[in-house]
Amino acid sequence: MKKIAMICLCLSLLMAAAGCWSGSDLDEVAMVFGSGLDKTDDGYELSVEILQSSGEVTAEESVHEGIVLSMERETLFDAVRSMIRQEKRRLIFTHTNMIVLGESLAVDNLTTPIDILKRDQMPRLNSLLLITTDDPKDILETSTISGDLTSIEMADSMEGTEFTGEFKPMDLKTVFEMLNAPVPATFAPMVQINSENEETIAELSGTAVINEEKMVGTLNVAETKGLLYLRDEAEKGSITAELTSGDKVSMEVQDEKVSIEPSLNGEQLTVDIDMEIAGTLAEVPNDMIVNEQTIQEMEEALTENIRTYMQMGLKKLQKELKTDILDFGVLVHQKYPQEWHAIKDDWEDVFSNADVNLMIETSIDHEGLIDQDDGEKKPELIPFFFWDHKD
């Protein structure tokens, strides 16, 4: 009897503890789905895209109408609190999908203003970080194609960038981890406004490179592809190459394996990069004969194209930006912990003068659904249950 009473007591306590202890009714708060930060003469400008909900309903049931608010203050925290005057409700950042930084803020000092994102318990570290040369507020106000909130649509679209091999979504957690590594450097996608059919839409336009606490430059799309190949993050992308005949072929990347081995001799660094990339033949000219000879030619052409992208990315990072976002420094720190202390203060020079050897092997593992040999289609295999069983 005592056991039954104890069980009933425990169940009643569990029922009383159900729910979210810090929950708020939607009509009492303003849910922020995207925010923009930029530098002003007197401090910072904070822009937020909030959800205008209707009545006492859940977030899924509410009418998704977004509005963008802006506020200029000396600190971002003061701007957040001051927005209560405009919205008449407290801002909630637990559903923020993305944060857009203005270039003027990024090139000045981006770590100090976003310190609040690490310090406060409300912002999510899986929020995506983007940088723009436009006004972050204008990015949040761009038209949507399939949704009602720009922030949600842009965050969802970032998931599809892995199929292009041209961009890498970067969340705050990854950015902070790279900035706290032995070589404090990271990167983030660039976004810009594009006017099309009398409507403005936001689109990705390259990669911002960040050294310590400042943005030091950008990579274009081709250089970003090279970066992702070097970082072993180009899986599921595509690659196109031109053959000696002038025909162009495309391969869909299915698998990529990159091995990076640094060797340090004094302050002279040598890095050997072995890369194996495999994929499916995605597109060839209709009149091309696909056989072992042509496949070998395609693989060689694709290899050289990949090498070109990687060399473009390396040249930009080493000679112009002098910023290691390839994790070479991390690998040297792991392999040569004693020597690292002697060269870490001169790492930019060591990285910039490093000799990098690229060994690339490309293989087309699948030709697609069309099977050809010497220009002749192989006979179609008919399932046995369709055979003509006439005697």
Automatic annotation (TrEMBL):
GO biological process: spore germination
GO cellular component annotations of the record: membrane
Protein known as: Ger(X)C family spore germination protein
Domain Spore germination protein N-terminal as annotated: residue spans: 25-192
Family: Belongs to the GerABKC lipoprotein family.
Transmembrane spans: none
Membrane-topology annotation of the record: Lipid-anchor
